[in-house]
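Figure caption, in words: inputs first, then the predicted bound structure.
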Amino acid sequence: MTDVSSKGPAQGDDREILTNRQGHFVYDNQNQRTVGARGPATLENYQFLEKISHFDRERIPERVVHARGATAFGYFEAYGAWGDEPIARYTRAKLFQERGKRSRVACRFSTVIGGRDSSECNRDPRGFAVKFYTEDGNWDLVGNNLGVFFIRDAIKFPDVIHALKPDPVTFVQQPRRIFDFMSQTPESMHMLVNLFSPRGIPADYRHQQGFGVNTYKWVNQQGETKLVKYHWMPKQGVRSMTEEDAANLQAQDVGHATADLYGAIQRGEYPEWELLVQMMDDHEHPELDFDPLDDTKTWPEQEFPPKAVGRMVLDRCPEDFFAESEQIAFGTGVLVDGLDFSDDKMLVGRTFSYSDTQRYRVGPNYLQLPVNQPDHGLVRTNQRDGQMTYHVDGGGGNPIVNYEPSILGGLREAHYPTHDEQGPEIRGRLTRKRIPRTNDYLQAGQRYCLMEQWERDDLVKNMIDLLSQCDRPIQERMVWHFLLVENDLGTRVGEGLGIGAKDVAHLEPLESQDLTDEDRERLRNLG
Ligand code: HEM
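Bound structure (protoporphyrin IX containing FE present):
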């Protein structure tokens, strides 16, 4: 080992000495090795090559959606009850059982369409993803701020995202492409009415709601199930921006929401959300005018009142943004005992997509990274090797036994907490069919009617601004949909575009669509 004392820093400087990744001291970090002071450079210059080639690899692929986002950490505290009833009646998930019980959480807020450095002022749904590090392993609740989504079948996800992302030729986001797709996708109306109202540009991440959006299940000790939907309500209140507010702010700052979140935490103003749950019996509910597994619908709160089950407090910023925010990986497949999937076709498709993209984006061993590992040393697997293996998953006692079953040692299966065969019995033909009760307009219209006048005005103005950049057939079809959503909305948007109800009365329903009797009645009145 070389003696560094003669080459080392000036006396009295007790900072640690720079090394390369092999643990070798770096004597000169200013000049690479060259033949003579003016070069040429030499190829055996390990220190220079290691430094520059690591830099060349500093970026990993950004998330294909939700690339811009910020993660903060904190805890979830359970209330132990669903309203007045002990929570154990409905779920055996341990994190919810006792009043005051805390689980560590990581929460990443995001925009959806823009790239990693895009503006946080954009009109865009916001992601609201929470990882609970529970005593039974991780639970991820991966939601958004609007409560519904554009589509109801996962097979449409690449299409909706391609339409919303920049044009593949010019790389400019084009209303023409967005509304071309939406005009042929009537289930998007509920989402559009929300997204193009002031709710579509939340003021920042602290003042937004969150929703699980998809329908999940709760399972109790007896194996009985209920359908549930999750809601996060900010204690800070809900605030939004108009298009004009957003444009003014964006002129100065494209990262205001991240700065606001981290600034508040650093000042000790820890943001807090209450988690509420809606519940219904686990069956098809033929009495409802929508399917409980349809993520373009909300559940009416009068019939299915949301009840508070706990609260989340965020009190820590990441120590390193890349390690803890870029590399964090959420997925809808990450559930703990007592929580389950429903057959919601979006949810099932999402559940494949998240871990698939993370094996590509972060690498096959992404779950060995500290931010993604469960707490409590819970991981004991026989999975081995692959790129960037960081350590051998522990347990089993005998290192040569990386398989199961074995009489030489190794790991054994767990016993199911209750019997395995309590799930629903499912019979049916393999098919490709849309769900019945699509009812694409009713809730969109109810949402429009619930808005305050200024919110309706803002929605109408935004739709006219964007649709006026679209081709006439797209404008006509969108006015046709809006007339079915709510006469006032269709009439006002139509007026702005110079399209009356009579101009669209000849349009036939889309092949992909089932109309309700009320929709047909409205159609008859158009002409
Ligand atoms: C992120 C797929 C629907 C919320 C992502 C990512 C993919 C994806 C591939 C990137 C993940 C990563 O790189 O780590 C899908 C598919 C969907 C779907 C295939 C439909 C079939 C939804 C819906 C919501 C949602 C309905 C809201 C309820 C999110 C959030 C993130 C995300 C919040 C960001 C997670 C983070 O902060 O890292 N989605 N998604 N997605 N998605 Fe989805």
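Confidence is low (pLDDT under 50) at residues 1-7.
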